[in-house]
């Protein structure tokens, strides 16, 4: 592989979020690390997209920049039609709480709040009215009705991630970003969480972007994007865990090629 | 050995790595130790200055002959001695070894300055005396002009001349306390160059004038006789030679002893009280600091659980982990104490020069830095740091090698066995403390029992703090969710998540606020009592005084001069004298008791106020204490040495205005010293308006040196203003303790913010704005401050009540809770809490979201 395929965006789909020509550089001079190297990608609405890649490939950076948690060095990131580069910290914060949902790998919940309070946290921070019916639907969907008054420390890891997912969906965001949501879970509880994310997309029409290193998790997605050395190197529609695993093995076998491409 | 070095290395490394965390501890110790050192150095410096001052005053004096009998009461400085025979100077001049002998005559005399106001005001002593021609005995030197030769001529010290804008040739009034016209013929320095003896004013008169105005008989008497020894004769030899020739009742002492006595008097009366007061407040500041230090170490140890667990897993012994934490405390304590000692010396130096600038009535010399002033604060500071760190260090040592990698440390103060022990111990302490306080305050009353109870109550409340922290903070924070939404909810929850920490942080502030409100209540009660005393017992319309509550001296002729005015129905002067009644030194009020009864309410009077020259009127409480009744005869010994039996002829209700003993002027006159009144009470005729009466009396009082003429209300207010001055001093001293407590809140919050990095990052990620985050931290700070402030207000008011009652042996005092001042304390506490939260809030808001999420 001497060239990296340039991928055309599927312009027919409406994009919930996207980045164009995104560059993210950490450090300066000899310690400079190019985490994103001219990445252009869109996350279509109503779909579950997975981002995969080896450690240091830039997949988490891509998620953080697309979600407005971090700023790009160059290029643009958009949520819907809003360009994030033009927003100050306050506007960006408001955008996150009103239009984006988050699920992190761990430490997803505020320890002093109950499960229910954690679920409605972004809406409460906005001082807005909670859509009771919707929240009740979510609570039933994630199956936590009997744990609602518990504090996070009293919940299992899987339960905590389900609360986090309910919180991410509570405000009906335009897109949910999930950073290794099953990274700390055993395979069975992980599968439950992934099932729920799938249902959120299929039954509730939500958009989910998920970073993962687990081929099984990627198998739940509609499409998988592969990143290596800060570049988008491949994508796979309707992936299967086996197919993803095969693709990942290629990376392991040919890291030098990818490295050469990124460095030139 | 090597294990010890390893331990020390770990401590030093972690200190270097977490300098900021211990900054609060460092500051708390530094402030407390500075206060302590400053107090000790200032005390030594003042003592040294007085020492030098009195040594200078007696430099040329080798021996003094004076009356052996000294009459001492609480109100007299140096006691009262009978005068000696002036002729003795001539007789004793013949004693071998005497080079010079001069009578010394000293009394009080207040100069009136160019502006018509008394020079020196209410502050330092205003003295007058005989200008001794012998330059060896006279500590003053003429700087300008000449010595007084004719009646009415005077030398004044340069300080008084400057302050009163008086110069040679000027004529002015000397209140001795009868007004005397003097012409200034000379300006003197104290010693070679000082403007005066400290801030005292001094007027030197001729021998005849001094005898006339400053001695009881007006002739032939002297305060003492001073001697200078011939060459080769020691002070002790001179004293021995003089003693052999002395009549009975007199004694000879060395000049050195006289100055030592004076220094000792100042030390025991004034300096000891001054330094003790400061030391108490330094102690409070350090006590408050211990909470801050304990908290810091507890949090640092909790945050370092993983680190310590790793050390234990790698084979560090329990003692080594404990030692590492303690060593850290030692290093911080020592460093901060050393800085504090330097700071304290700086404070003392600053205050000393400030005294000079504002003309404070303390003599000032070069700083005296004793070994104790350095060693004691160093020791106290270090011990405070280490002592506060012991419990956290023990906890650090107990860290299990496989300690859970819990994200956040949680403590279980309010539950489990430890919680029950805390409950029981705290409740018992509070119950016992409150019981002792109440019993001490009401039944007895006993200040000791009340004070003990107060300490126990305070301790108990501190112990119970963590148990109540959750409940109280939740209650106080109840309106927050509605006021501030989600950040309010979070602030409230965060403030209750570590009850021990919240309680310890709040306790520091609580101790400070308790003392503040205790003094506020106590002060208000004293004011109310004074006000009440004046309005209840003072039936007159006007009061003439030199300002303050019966301080200063008025001419005894003033009362009669005022009584002659057509507007005045009656006026009576009250003077003060000292005598030994039944063997005890007592202050007598010298007055016309029958006239006094017409103006000052003496309550129910048993017996007759026609005391004559052999009768006493005694307050009922004093009579009860001594077991006297109307008709009891007691021996009264006057300062001139005369003793006579006096009969208790009347009992009355004592008060601040009329003290415990009344005698007539006629009884007092033969034994009087320099005669003066301290208060003249005036009743106006019916139909004379207050303003007209006041104007007339003021005009009549002008020739007597223009004393203050005040209406009853003005006099009451003026008298109580002393309390305000006292309160301002106390507030200023407590400010430091409160500051340390606030630093403690800020410090705890900073550490908490650090601990909650990930949580804060999460909140920011899901949409908490920076200002919401700041509000959250600030409100947490306010809640903790509110907890401490309200606890302190409650406790302080209660203890204030107890103290007022306990100190009120007569049962006549008032108790007052000043709502305005206490509200100010509350608001100040809350605002201070918000201010304390500013920096931690800013730091929290600056947090980088990604790093926070990625942390750990």
List keywords for this structure.
heterodimer, A: 264 residues, alpha/beta, Rossmann fold, six-stranded mixed β-sheet, 36% helix, globular, disordered N terminus, disordered C terminus, B: 856 residues, alpha+beta, eight-stranded mixed β-sheet, six-stranded mixed beta barrel, 16% strand
How would you describe the overall organization of this protein?
The complex is a heterodimer of chains A (264) and B (856). Chain A has 264 residues and is of the alpha/beta class. Chain A has one domain: 3-Layer(aba) Sandwich (Rossmann fold). Chain A is 36% helix and 24% strand. Chain A has 10 helices and 10 strands. Chain A has helices spanning 59-66, 89-99, 115-119, 121-125, 132-142, 157-170, 187-202, 215-218, 241-253, 255-263, and strands at 15-26, 33-44, 48-52, 74-79, 82-83, 100-103, 175-179, 208-211, 223-228, 231-237. In chain A, the strands form 2 sheets. Chain A has a 6-stranded mixed beta sheet with strand order 6-7-8-3-9-10, with helices on both faces. Chain A has a 4-stranded antiparallel beta sheet with strand order 2-1-4-5, with helices on one face. In chain A, helix 5 (132-142) runs antiparallel to helix 6 (157-170) and helix 6 (157-170) packs parallel to helix 7 (187-202). The model of chain A is unreliable at 1-12 and 255-264 (pLDDT under 50). Chain B has 856 residues and is α+β, with helices and mostly antiparallel strands. Among the domains of chain B are: 58-256, no CATH class; 466-539 and 714-856, no CATH class; 548-706, no CATH class. In chain B, helix 1 (2-17) crosses helix 9 and helix 2 (23-57) packs antiparallel against helix 20. The longest helix of chain B has 49 residues, at 255-303. Residues 404-414 of chain B have low confidence and may be disordered. Classes of the chains: A alpha/beta (264), B alpha+beta (856). The A-B interface holds A 64, 69-70, 89-90, 93-94, 96-98, 102, 104, 107-113, 117, 121-122, 124-127, 153, 167 and B 407-408, 410, 485-487, 489-490, 493-494, 497, 758-759, 762-772, 849-850, 853, 856.
């Amino acid at each position: 592989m001497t060239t990296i395929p340039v991928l055309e965006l599927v312009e027919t789909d409406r994009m919930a979020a996207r980045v164009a020509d995104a560059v993210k550089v950490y450090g300066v001079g000899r310690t400079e690390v190019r985490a994103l190297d001219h990445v252009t990608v869109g996350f279509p609405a109503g779909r579950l997209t997975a981002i995969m890649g080896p450690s240091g490939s830039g997949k988490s950076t891509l998620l953080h920049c697309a979600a407005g948690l971090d700023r790009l060095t160059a290029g643009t990131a958009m949520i819907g039609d809003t360009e994030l580069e033009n927003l100050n910290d306050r506007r960006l914060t408001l955008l996150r709480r009103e239009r984006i949902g988050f699920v992190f790998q761990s430490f997803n919940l505020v320890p002093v709040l109950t499960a229910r309070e954690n679920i409605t946290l972004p809406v409460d921070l906005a001082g807005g009215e909670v859509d009771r019916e919707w929240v009740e639907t979510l609570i039933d969907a994630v199956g936590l009705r009997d744990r609602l008054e518990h504090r996070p420390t009293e919940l299992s890891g899987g339960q905590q991630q389900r609360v986090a997912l309910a919180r991410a969906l509570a405000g009906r965001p335009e897109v949910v970003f999930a950073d290794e949501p099953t990274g700390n879970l055993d395979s069975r509880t992980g599968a439950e969480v992934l099932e729920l994310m799938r249902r959120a997309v299929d039954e509730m029409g939500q958009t989910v972007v998920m970073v993962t290193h687990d081929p099984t998790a990627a198998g739940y997605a509609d499409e998988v994007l592969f990143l290596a050395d800060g570049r988008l190197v491949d994508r796979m529609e309707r992936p299967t865990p086996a197919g993803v695993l095969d693709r990942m093995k290629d990376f392991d076998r040919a890291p030098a090629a990818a490295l050469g491409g990124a460095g030139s | 050995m090597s294990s010890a070095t390893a331990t020390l290395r770990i401590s030093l490394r972690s200190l270097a790595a977490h300098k900021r965390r211990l900054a609060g501890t460092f500051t708390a110790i530094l402030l407390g130790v500075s206060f302590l050192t400053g107090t000790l150095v200032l005390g030594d410096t003042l003592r040294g200055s007085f020492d030098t001052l009195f040594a200078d005053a007696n430099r040329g004096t080798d021996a003094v002959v004076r009356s052996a009998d000294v009459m001492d009461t609480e109100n007299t400085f140096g006691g009262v001695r009978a005068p000696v025979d002036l002729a003795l100077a001539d007789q004793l001049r013949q004693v071998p070894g005497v080079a010079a002998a001069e009578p010394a005559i000293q009394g009080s005399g207040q100069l009136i300055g160019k502006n018509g106001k008394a020079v020196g005001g209410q502050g330092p002593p205003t003295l007058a005396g005989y200008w001794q021609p012998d330059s060896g005995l006279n500590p003053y030197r003429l700087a300008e002009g000449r010595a007084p030769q004719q009646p009415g001529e005077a030398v004044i010290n340069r300080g008084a001349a400057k302050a009163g804008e008086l110069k040679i040739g000027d004529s002015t009034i000397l209140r001795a306390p009868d007004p005397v016209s003097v012409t200034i013929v000379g300006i003197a320095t104290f010693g070679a160059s000082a403007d005066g003896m400290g801030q005292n004013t001094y007027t030197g008169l001729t021998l005849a004038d001094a005898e006339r105005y400053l001695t009881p008989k007006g002739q032939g008497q002297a305060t003492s006789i001073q001697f200078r020894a011939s060459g080769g004769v020691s002070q002790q030899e001179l004293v021995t030679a003089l003693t052999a020739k002395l009549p009975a009742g007199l004694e000879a002492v060395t000049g050195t002893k006289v100055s030592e006595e004076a220094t000792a008097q100042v030390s025991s009366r004034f300096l000891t009280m001054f330094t003790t007061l400061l030391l108490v407040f330094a102690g409070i500041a350090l006590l408050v600091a211990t909470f801050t230090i304990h908290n810091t170490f507890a949090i640092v140890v909790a945050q370092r659980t993983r680190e310590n667990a790793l050390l234990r897993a790698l084979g560090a012994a329990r003692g080594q982990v404990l030692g590492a934490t303690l060593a850290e405390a030692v290093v911080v304590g020592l460093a901060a104490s050393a800085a504090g000692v330097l700071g304290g010396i700086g404070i003392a130096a600053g205050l000393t020069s400030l005294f000079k600038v504002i003309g404070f009535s303390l003599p000032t010399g070069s700083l005296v830095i004793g070994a104790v002033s350095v060693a004691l604060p160093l020791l106290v500071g270090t011990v405070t740091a280490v002592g506060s760190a012991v419990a956290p260090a023990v906890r650090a040592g107990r860290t299990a090698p496989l300690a859970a990698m819990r994200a956040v440390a949680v403590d279980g103060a309010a539950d489990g066995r430890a919680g029950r022990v805390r409950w029981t111990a705290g409740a018992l302490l509070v119950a016992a403390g409150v019981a002792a306080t109440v019993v001490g305050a009401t039944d007895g009353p006993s200040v000791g029992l009340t004070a003990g109870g107060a300490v126990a109550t305070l301790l108990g409340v501190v112990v119970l703090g963590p148990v109540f922290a959750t409940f109280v903070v939740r209650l106080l924070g109840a309106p927050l969710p509605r006021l501030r939404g989600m950040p309010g909810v979070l602030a409230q929850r965060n403030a209750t998540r570590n009850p021990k920490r919240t309680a310890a942080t709040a306790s520091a502030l609580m101790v400070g606020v308790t003392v503040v409100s205790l003094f506020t209540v106590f002060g208000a009660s004293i004011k109310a009592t004074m006000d009440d005393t004046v309005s209840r017992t003072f039936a007159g319309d006007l009061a003439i005084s030199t300002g303050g509550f019966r301080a200063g001296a008025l001419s005894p002729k003033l009362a009669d001069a005022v009584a002659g005015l057509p507007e005045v129905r009656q006026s009576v002067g009250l003077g003060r004298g000292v005598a030994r009644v039944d063997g005890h030194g007592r202050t007598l009020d010298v007055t016309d008791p029958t006239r006094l009864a017409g103006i000052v309410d003496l309550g129910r009077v048993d017996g007759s106020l026609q005391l004559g020259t052999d009768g006493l009127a005694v307050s009922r409480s004093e009579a009860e204490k001594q077991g006297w009744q109307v008709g009891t005869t007691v021996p009264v010994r006057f300062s001139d040495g005369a003793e006579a039996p006096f009969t208790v002829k009347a009992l009355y209700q004592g008060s601040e205005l009329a003290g415990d003993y009344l005698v007539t002027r006629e009884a007092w006159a033969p034994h009087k010293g320099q005669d003066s009144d301290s208060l003249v009470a005036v009743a106006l005729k019916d139909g004379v308006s207050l303003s007209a009466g006041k104007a007339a009396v003021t005009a009549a009082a002008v020739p007597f040196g223009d004393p203050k003429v005040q209406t009853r209300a003005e006099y009451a207010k003026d008298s109580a203003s002393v309390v305000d001055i006292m309160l301002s001093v106390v507030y200023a001293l407590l400010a430091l303790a409160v500051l340390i407590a606030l630093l403690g809140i800020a410090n705890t919050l900073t550490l908490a913010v650090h601990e909650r990095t990930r949580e804060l990052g999460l909140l920011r990620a899901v949409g908490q704005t920076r200002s919401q985050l700041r509000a959250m931290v600030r409100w947490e700070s306010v809640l903790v401050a509110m907890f401490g402030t309200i606890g302190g207000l409650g406790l302080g008011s209660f203890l204030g009540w107890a103290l007022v009652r306990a100190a009120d042996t007569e049962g006549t005092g008032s108790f007052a809770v000043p709502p305005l001042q206490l509200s100010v304390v509350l608001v100040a506490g809350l605002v201070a809490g918000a201010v304390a939260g500013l920096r931690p809030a800013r730091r929290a808001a600056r947090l980088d979201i990604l790093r926070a999420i990625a942390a750990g």
